[in-house]
Design a protein that fits this description.
By secondary structure, the chain is mainly α. It is built from 16 helices and five strands. It is 54% helix and 7% strand. A hairpin with a 2-residue loop joins strand 3 (244-251) and strand 4 (254-259). The longest helix is centred in the first third of the chain and has 27 residues, at 113-139.
Length: 382
């Protein structure tokens, strides 16, 4: 257990279990009226699905009814939003391998080459807009109004393409495909909901900045320790080899190595994406989480976090490359943004977890082979 239990906790916070009495945190109530749209009420009050669900005892979206008093405001700490599952709000789960293969087969049998080419072009436009908007958010200090504005822009581009009757890429085609493979259908607001929910989650992260000081100096000290420690481990001839035992396919022609799990080197401390969100909705990030775990033991924090972000981006692109999973791609990028922001803020115990991992001393911790094959690399353990 390391940063990941703490910070992917975050993308996990994208998911939180209620405390014994979360309604005690409520500062604003609303009585549901006939015809109310619960999602609209949540967003009008600028809170995320996760925060809303925590404030309302984890109640399922489909169980609310006219006349219910709901909580739509209150102070909630990040640590209180750990295990909430908001699938009933977002409606998107990672498709099975069978569903993905079936979608691909149906699409290739339904469209000609020209139509498929047009689909790819439209998908690339949407991905470029999403990538650019999310990267700008990472590079600058977080601003909620700016984030909301970017979501409106992304949604406008998505709508301009999917609502165009002459466009091959449209919501009806997506839903027709999803229906055949038994996946939840989308609406014209699905992309906007995903993006806006990300903004309100990022605001929670931004408002909970802990221990945001002297990172650079501490990293320089840790780097010196790392060099001495690595040299110590390299002198140990009994360290187990990092031998690949197989490859695992994450997507279309995208394979990551699988290494043997060991208890006598740093692999004993690798636990993947231990937050519930990642396990249930984005398990494809596990290889990136594993590499980040190793890096927190053997590398510099800033480099570890940046490499982690880069690896997640690669996974989003490789696992969700086509038209039939453009919504999955956007959701994946949202999870990526939230996860990176969580670790990069150094709050929520992330910095303490990094220091703890760095200070743990045991044989075969950071050998040259471990650093070359596992540090910030994507892999599985078995």
């Amino acid at each position: 257990m390391n940063f990941k239990k703490v910070a992917f906790i975050f993308v996990a916070y994208i998911i939180g279990l209620s405390l014994e009495n979360p309604l005690s945190n409520c500062s604003k109530y609303y009585k549901l009226e006939y015809g109310d749209n619960l999602k609209n009420i949540i967003f009008q009050n600028k809170i995320s699905f996760e925060k809303f669900k925590f404030l309302n005892n984890g109640k399922d979206l489909n169980l609310f009814k006219t006349g219910d008093n709901i909580c739509i405001g209150g102070n909630v700490a990040f640590k209180d939003l750990i295990k909430q599952n908001v699938y009933d709000f977002i409606g998107i789960k990672e498709p099975t391998e069978f569903q993905t293969e079936l979608e691909n087969k149906i699409l290739n049998n339904s469209l000609n080459r020209t139509e498929i080419k047009e689909l790819k072009e439209n998908v690339n436009i949407i991905k470029t807009v999403v990538d650019t908007s999310f990267e700008i958010e990472k590079e600058n200090s977080f601003n909620l109004k700016s984030c909301e504005q970017k979501c409106r822009f992304i949604n406008a581009i998505f709508a301009s393409i999917t609502k165009n009757e002459e466009s091959i890429l449209n919501i009806n085609l997506i839903n027709k495909l999803y229906k055949k493979v038994n996946r939840p259908l989308i609406t014209e607001n699905t992309v906007y909901d995903i993006c806006l929910n990300k903004c309100y989650n990022l605001e929670i992260i931004n408002n909970e900045k802990y221990q945001q000081n002297k990172i650079k100096e501490e990293e320089e000290e840790e780097e010196e320790k790392e060099e001495e420690f690595t040299a110590f481990n390299l002198s140990k001839r009994s360290c187990p080899a990092v031998k690949q035992i197989e490859k695992y396919s994450l997507g279309n022609s995208f394979f990551v190595p699988v290494y043997q799990k060991r208890k006598d080197d740093v692999r004993a401390r690798v636990d993947g994406c231990s937050a519930k969100l990642l396990v249930q909705l984005a398990s494809y990030f596990t290889p990136a989480c594993n590499g980040h775990d190793v890096c927190y033991h053997c590398g510099k924090k800033a480099n570890c976090d940046n490499d982690f972000n880069k690896n997640m981006g690669i996974i989003c692109e490789k696992v969700w490359p086509g038209f039939w999973n453009i919504i999955d791609y956007i959701q994946c990028k949202s999870y990526q943004d939230i996860a990176f922001s969580a670790v990069n803020q150094n709050g929520f115990g992330v910095l303490d977890a990094y220091k703890d991992d760095q200070n743990r001393q045991f044989n075969c911790k950071c050998t040259s082979e471990i650093n070359s094959k596992l540090l910030s690399k994507m892999f599985y353990l078995k």
